[in-house]
Amino acid sequence: MVDVWFPYGKTDVCVRVPARNLLGSINPVQKSGVSDNRAEIDRALKEPIGTRQLTELVKPEGKVAIAIDDALCNDVYNDMILSVLAELNATGIKDENVTLIFSYDNNGVVKSEDAALFLDEEVLNRVNIVKHDVRAGDLVYAGTTKSYGNKVFLNRVFAEADVKILLGEVYLHYYAGYEGGRKTVLTKVSGEETIQHNSVMMLNSNAKAGILNGNPIHEDMTEVARLAKVDFIVNVVRNSKGEVVQAFAGDLEAAFLEAVKLVDEIYKVKVDRRADIVVVSAGGNPLDATLDRAYRAVDNALDVVKRGGVIILVAECPEGYGNQMFYDWMTRLVDLKSTEKEIKRNFATGGHKAYYLLKTLQSHPVILVSALPDYYAINVFKLKTARAVNDALTDAFKAAGSAARVWTIPFGNYTLPEYSAPEEIKT
Hints:
single chain; about 425 residues; alpha/beta; 2-enoyl-CoA Hydratase, Chain A, domain 1; Rossmann fold; 6-stranded parallel beta sheet; 6-stranded mixed beta sheet; 16 helices; 20 strands; about 35% helix; globular
């Protein structure tokens, strides 16, 4: 037997796999985090990619809007903001002429949470804070994307700023290919109609994690960001421990694409076999706090499990299923086709996870090992359940056969295994 440990909430659980059945464990490449986040961000600002330094792009009397991606953890947020403010102050920009814009919630309404939840008091006391509302009555029309006909409506403060800056993190994303860069404009400062038009294209077969070429979501997002006239971005890439590995600053596209290269280096893993069974963990708390967060691990694992193969998701889900729209769509929409129609008619963040789950269940049984009550797991989300991961593996072997081969993926939300024939990997 081979013992494989999986993050589960704030602890770990062990699955025992017969050695003859185990193909191996798929993990991201280990990259050390920097010792000083602020110093690394400052370095990136001094060495911008594809454009001039930020200090050369602003004028002392200018107004600056900074859109922030609320996926970042508190310490990285504040380090990025303070570094950018230092650069702006060095050119004579006063704090009162700087506005931070953060996101909408899943229903398109201004968030009720106070910015103090993720911004330090120093930042709160220095600059203006705006909570973006995708349904605001004063959104500014910035044009229509040529490739996909998306009418671009933007937050007025952002649209009217003299200098527009994006702060965020680059990592794998379900259908945009990657978070970060251009995506911050569409999801953080755009109007509901713009978001809806773009999001419908998630049904395209090229709209998937790790894909940019031919991905209509990415291509449209990039054009939306161009129409928004973004001047500068600052993005970071973190390792599986949440530590900043590198910061990237500069041009909207050039800096983003350099960050993508590092994400690929760390998180894309090529394998030459597909398994009959995949045991995958989201990566522990906070990634498995809710089912909707943890499900990303299943989606990332699909390329390395055979059609009909069993997927075991190890995710504590102490906070339940998560997004209410995810629950509503799973209870209200009866099958994949009706979910696709709902995406086209009325896309809602969170609801799209119902589409992905239903699509997966067409080809794979999914066994959930979690604290989520069976009522929700079985009756609402149509999953099988097991009390412990080894019980789930026993059930999987019953379904797939005693000779079934197994991949284990301990950090599934981060890791993107990609199947390639052996000769392709060698070349």
